[in-house]
Design goal:
Helix 5 links the parallel strand 4 and strand 5. The protein is built from 16 helices and 13 strands. It has 424 residues and is an alpha/beta fold. It has two domains: 199 residues, NAD(P)-binding Rossmann-like Domain (Rossmann fold); 205 residues, 3-Layer(aba) Sandwich (Rossmann fold), CATH 3.40.50.720. Strands 3-2-1-4-5-6-7-8 form an eight-stranded mixed β-sheet, sandwiched between helices. Strands 11-10-9-12-13 form a five-stranded parallel β-sheet, sandwiched between helices. Bound molecules: nicotinamide-adenine-dinucleotide.
């Protein structure tokens, strides 16, 4: 296969980046999202979230190699590969909710069943799951489902390792591509598609590909919880310069330069869309197979307690529950507008549960998203300066670069540095 055309289902962080990335490499790409507002925004040249590089990429390819389709059938029509990039959120028991994946598959399988004459999805179109799905999903759930619909299409799984805030850079310059395949057609289609990226391509069993993604996210979560536990321990011992201790640790030549230092550093717990739900899904999968993952359980339970630790620290600094408390940073990490499962939300909820109701907040990018998702009864400030002029106690919850040195600019404010970012 030379220049396969591609359909992408789900135009969020992963799907839109994937669609624009393949389109920028010259492949013909059609994207579809169930959210009509999102489709219209992208078709009009807008990016629905903050991600450097995506706007420029969209401007380069829209109407040339990238098109937004009005329905799933139109997107899938004639594609050589269909990529599924929909969300896989956590259920209350921690397991992954695959409802969006199966509904996106239905759209394509419907296109196949409705195909008359020249239209629809060809039998050799490769159905590729890019969403993060627990090991066993392709072999035990997706493939049987596709076959139960009478389709013979090859299926594959191709986990994505991009980081929010760097989606474009990570996608265009991947360090490795992982593909779980069982047949040669899927392998050759994926090899042709990824050839222009110049990264090693690993063809492995579907279970291996799915497992590698969880292996990666569980390790990152473990490093964060390890760092948080050590910081709490150091606090209990007393006299330890925690931020300096970690920065000196990073100079170890076994760690330096690996880009891992961001994860080996204490804070107020990991958040965002991926680490919480993926560690929970792996834990749920392990338990369902009769194995109790002790380290992973510890990683998750410490993380669940972190907002409480942060809230107690803030409460100790505040004179009384009626004092105005400022929260600097609402996104789950700097450089992102994403507030999904943000530690800020859990810290604010813990403060409110303890009777602290005068809460003010500021974030450079995530305030609209935060307001929409959590709708807490707090006051939003127009700037970090306004917040520091209003509140006597200010908690730094997201380490945005623009907050560096703010403690020196407002010496009268009592700063609670939940990210070990301001001092030391
Ligand atoms: N966000 C990340 O940093 C990241 C990194 C690697 C992997 N992942 C994984 O990739 C997947 C997607 O994550 P995301 O952050 O891009 O999610 P997202 O919420 O940003 O985007 C998902 C999109 O899918 C759309 N959608 C839902 N059902 C659909 C359907 N039936 N057909 C078409 N579109 C549909 C939604 O409207 C939404 O726009 C998840 O499994 C996630 O774990 C995410």
């Amino acid at each position: 296969m030379n220049r396969p055309s591609v359909a992408v289902f789900g135009l969020g962080f992963v799907g839109l980046t994937t669609a624009l990335g393949f389109a920028d490499k010259g492949f013909s790409v059609r994207g579809f999202d169930v959210d009509g507002g999102r489709r219209a925004e992208i078709a009009g040249g807008g990016i629905p979230f903050h991600e450097p590089g995506l706007g420029e990429a969209l401007a380069r390819v829209i109407g040339k190699t990238f098109f937004v389709a009005d329905d799933a059938m139109m997107a899938a029509n004639g594609a050589g590969l269909c990529f599924f990039c929909v969300g896989t959120p956590g259920r209350p028991d921690g397991s992954a909710d695959l409802a969006d994946l199966f509904s996106a598959l239905d759209g394509v399988l419907g296109a196949r069943e409705n195909a008359r004459g020249g239209g629809g999805v060809a039998d050799d179109c490769v159905l590729v799951v890019k969403s993060t799905v627990p090991p066993g999903t392709l072999a035990e759930r997706v493939e049987p489902y596709v076959r139960s619909r009478g389709a013979v299409n090859p299926v594959a799984v191709n986990p994505e390792f991009l980081r929010e805030g760097r989606c474009w850079e990570d996608f265009i310059h991947p360090d490795r591509i992982v593909c779980g395949v069982t047949d040669d057609l899927a392998k050759s289609a994926l090899a042709a598609l990824y050839a222009p990226f110049g990264a090693p391509i690993h063809f492995v069993t579907p279970n291996t590909a799915e497992f590698i993604k969880y292996l990666s996210n569980s390790l990152l979560a473990t490093l964060i919880s390890y760092s948080n536990e050590m910081a709490l321990l150091a606090d209990a011992v007393g006299g330890v310069e925690i931020a300096r201790a970690f920065r000196i640790l990073h100079e170890d030549r076994r760690l330096a330069g690996a880009g891992i230092d961001a994860y080996i550093y204490p804070g107020c717990g990991y958040g965002g869309y991926c680490l919480p739900k993926d560690t929970a899904a792996l834990g749920a999968l392990a338990r369902s197979r009769g194995f109790s993952p002790r380290i992973l359980e510890g990683v998750m339970s410490l993380n669940a307690e972190m907002p409480g630790f942060a809230a107690r620290k803030i409460e100790r600094a505040a004179a009384s529950p009626t004092e105005k408390i400022g929260v600097l940073g609402l996104s789950f990490k700097p450089g992102s507008s994403d507030a999904r499962d943000s530690p800020a939300a859990r810290i604010i909820a813990a403060l409110m549960a303890d009777g602290y109701r005068n809460i003010y907040a500021y974030d450079p990018l995530a305030m609209d998203e935060f307001r929409r998702v959590y709708a807490p009864d707090i006051v939003y400030c127009a700037s970090a300066r306004e917040l520091c002029e209003t509140c006597g106690t200010v908690a730094l919850v997201t380490a945005w670069e623009e907050f560096a040195g703010i403690d020196r600019a407002f010496p009268a404010v009592d700063f609670v540095d939940c990210r070990y970012f301001l001092k030391g």
